[in-house]
Amino acid sequence: MRFSTLSSKKILLGVTGSIAAYKAVELVRELSRQGASVTVVATKNAGEFIGAVTFHAVSGSAVYTDLFGMPAEPAPHINLPRQADAVVIAPATANFIGKMAHGIADDLLSTIVLAAQKPILVCPAMNSAMYEHPAMKGNLEQLRKYGYRIVEPETGPLACGDEGPGRLAEPSTICEAVKIVLEKKDLQGQKILVTAGPTEEPIDPVRFISNRSSGKMGDSLARVAKRRGAEVVLISGPTCLSKPWGIEFVPVRTAAEMYKAVLSYFDWATIVIKAAAVADYGLSTVLPQKLKKGTPDLSLKLTRTPDILKELGKRKKRQILVGFAAESKNLIAEARRKLQEKNLDLIVANDITVPGAGFGFDTNQVNIITADGEVFDSPLLDKEEIAYIILDKVLEVLQRSRGKS
Ligand SMILES: Cc1cc2nc3c(=O)[nH]c(=O)nc-3n(C[C@H](O)[C@H](O)[C@H](O)COP(=O)(O)O)c2cc1C
After folding, report:
1. Which of 27, 39, 68, 191 has the most beta carbons within 10 angstroms of its beta carbon?
2. What is the distance in A from the centroid of ligand 1 to the CA of 403?
3. Which CATH number fits domain 191-284+301-404: 3.40.190.10, 3.40.800.20, 3.40.50.10300, 3.30.750.24?
4. Ligand 1 lined by 381 (C-beta under 6 Å)
5. What pLDDT digit, counting tens, does each position of 108-145 carry?
6. 201-202/208-209 β-pairing
7. CA 292 to CA 320: how far, in whole Å?
């Protein structure tokens, strides 16, 4: 990827004495892969779980553990957070969270937390009983009051054999949370509804009609909009993607469900981006029993599903409405027709015959057309970078519409 929120960012990663400390290694790799440079500060007890050599090898720099005794760095608790863009504590033990909540500074990492004037993210990891203890709830509440961001643990099987809340959030989730903290907030105040993925139109209890949409374009748009400060709702058909962190997620299956969900959020939204590949046709009556193999040929009668975008175009008051057009011929002419017919403010056209663009790929190449007739052609880029470009254009349209009103 050519562009990343984490490019050239400096992250101070604090690792404490949890069984999940090994996952911090993966986190260092993920942050570094996305362009950040990572300095690891580990508590003495973290060293019981994972050695400094491992962190040194993956981060490329020495690991800090001691407050005293470093002639080259006489005040590491002041200088290290000063050089960082954000401080991430992952995993954060119950003990360390307790120390942070009460302002205790008895080792390098806890002193750094007190001295840091940078965003602080805390990623708890512990046994469920510890996590659900009233002391922990109170301590986390206190950290929220200090303005620290909590990346809540996941629920699932724990290292001790128990099952419940307490598993350290996945490194990809922690990375996303760091991006949300560090990204510029030029979409603050906007309420953005994004649709993504395919729909599934059932034929019988086991079969359905669908398409190859992976949901990646809509997912990237939702994540990037959230990072840029918008409140985001993502309505998605069935995909293999995980639910994005910090975003209200509404799963749907059919075009009819998508229609209902989109309309229920329409009045709330200031911007609507319809990136979903909604089926145009479905069976009006779903077969109640599994269709048996019989005659050599089979005809199914398909009927039109509701045209969601057209309906939104009719109901539109103040919203900026963005549609997508995936075409295999006459791309620009078809996209312009759709833009006018559906009363859109902007349309993102993509030629699905271009190698690497459109359905199922991680990359896309788009032509963005505005209602004012402007056309912008993007190169073939990662879908996340395309999402930044689309949202830049949406912002321009929004600013122009404000200028007119
Ligand atoms: C095998 C083992 C696993 C542990 N895992 C955790 C854990 O996941 N979370 C936690 O809060 N404490 C855990 N502890 C307890 C902490 O290591 C202990 O509270 C320690 O004082 C934390 O030190 P620190 O916060 O300074 O790193 C574990 C202890 C052992 C022996």
Report:
1. 27
2. 56
3. 3.40.50.10300
4. no
5. 999 999 999 999 999 999 999 999 999 999 999 999 99
6. antiparallel
7. 47
Count CB-CB contacts under 10 A for residue 275: 26
At 294 the pLDDT is 84
* CATH number for the domain formed by residue range(s) 10-182: 3.40.50.1950
Between the CA of 18 and the centroid of ligand 1 the distance, in Å, is: 4
Predicted pLDDT at 352: 83
Is there a common fold for 10-182 and 191-284+301-404?
Answer: yes
Catalytic residue among 123, 160, 175, 240: 160
Residue nearest to atom 28 of ligand 1 (CA): 18
Rounded to the nearest whole angstrom, what is the distance from the C-alpha of residue 20 to the centroid of ligand 1? 9
Residue 167 CA, chain-centre distance (Å), reads: 19
Per-residue DSSP letter, 7: T
- Between the CA atoms of 379, 385, 391 and 394, what dihedral angle is there, to the nearest 10 degrees? 0
CB of 45 within 6 A of ligand 1: the answer is: yes
Answer yes or no: 175 catalytic. Answer: no
